[in-house]
Fold each of these.
Amino acid sequence: MGNKITKEIQSLVEVELRKGASNSRIATLLGVPYNEAVEMIEEIKLSFKPDVGDKIIFTFRDEKMAGVITKLLKNSAVVDISWDLSSDKMKDLMEDRTIVNFKDIEQTVL
């Protein structure tokens, strides 16, 4: 299955999953049978799901933020905010720790 997943397919599926799209919608967008799409989706999910300790960049109210994941929830993560890498505008609005939906994570920083 891995050889069928191109960078374009992976990117499309990741974006749609972060939006909360259903497996059937993703299958339609990919133009593949539902069962094949589910296999691809599961493989892609494993490759991009964040983990505890990951440093991430995310968006909150259209501001770029950064932090470290301290706990995973079902579709979100508890993140300790790195204020030196985040928007200063948000200091008055946010605590030092927040919940970030997976769909709002833009990238994992190595």
Amino acid sequence: MAIDKEKAKGHVALKGFFGICREWDCTQEEMRQMLGGVSRSKLANYRKLPHVKLLRDTLERISYILGIYKSLRVMYPTAGRANRRVRLKTSEDPFAGTSALDFMARGSMKHLMEARRYFDAKRAG
């Protein structure tokens, strides 16, 4: 049986997403919102790490999260510090007094994109 590349890509993306969410200690609601407000049942299905073709929107959202994770891991010497940073409240733009995770969990693609831009700029110095 031939491997469907799109379904394999979905599997890998979900595996990465849930691995990061485990490290960041994300709630079910945070995960749902970062994936665009998916239903509880869809999130439960995704947690089984199926080989599934994901919507382009979902792949893009996961891509932003992977980029944010990478930037944090480059910026901080330990995984613990990097993972704590995502929950640290800051007055810096675009977060305005919330944590990066709270900001990303607002559910819009724009919030993920702005958080990614922020951490990429911080990493670049």
Amino acid sequence: MPQEIYNIEHTGFVDGQLISEVSVNAAHSIFEGHFPGSPVTPGVIQMQMVRDILAQHRGRPLRLKMLRTCKFLKILDPAANPLVTINIKYKAEELVEVSATGQWGSTVFFKIQATYIYE
């Protein structure tokens, strides 16, 4: 079985937000090439965390329809920051409108505003 690049450790709903703690596997082989000696969690993986958390919470697979904004503010080094807190605000009808951040403590790694659709 291949190693997962990340695992959703737990998720809760607090003050209208979906909050998840995600562990990033610094030993995953992707970091051997991205980048040797200075691992960086790829932006697409950070975006996938948001989708997977939301899909798990909603109990249905989701697909990205539109990405309004996506800002990567700090490098997410899995060795230095093996845990990331993902905060997601969303409205769900036919479309799932999302505003999300990934951070640890006061360090914000990314911010995303996106629209997902159910598969």
Amino acid sequence: MEIEVPPNWNEDEHRSYTPADTDREMQYRTYLHESGDLRLKVAPASLDGEDHPGYTLTTTSYPGLDFSVTETVRTVLTFERCGKIARRFMELFSASYDGPGSLEDAVEYAHERTCEHR
């Protein structure tokens, strides 16, 4: 499934693979905001050390830098659902983001509206 991304986001990386212990194909995708300040990752939960099935959406602020911060937004059962949440996160982030000084506020805004507690 392709995730249609908002105009100021780009797919950074994508892979499909079949783990050795199953015949189900898994997917992994990352998206980068045009500023380069935020990366989203939609990946199997097991890649992040989780002990349950499904996919996890994570954010990384300032990817590649020593002070980068990675946070989990949501874990859901299917790639398709995680992709929809990722798109919603991108839209909310983009609506709130106004440059590097507001990165944390925009991430918090989008995170609060897409996290598991809602």
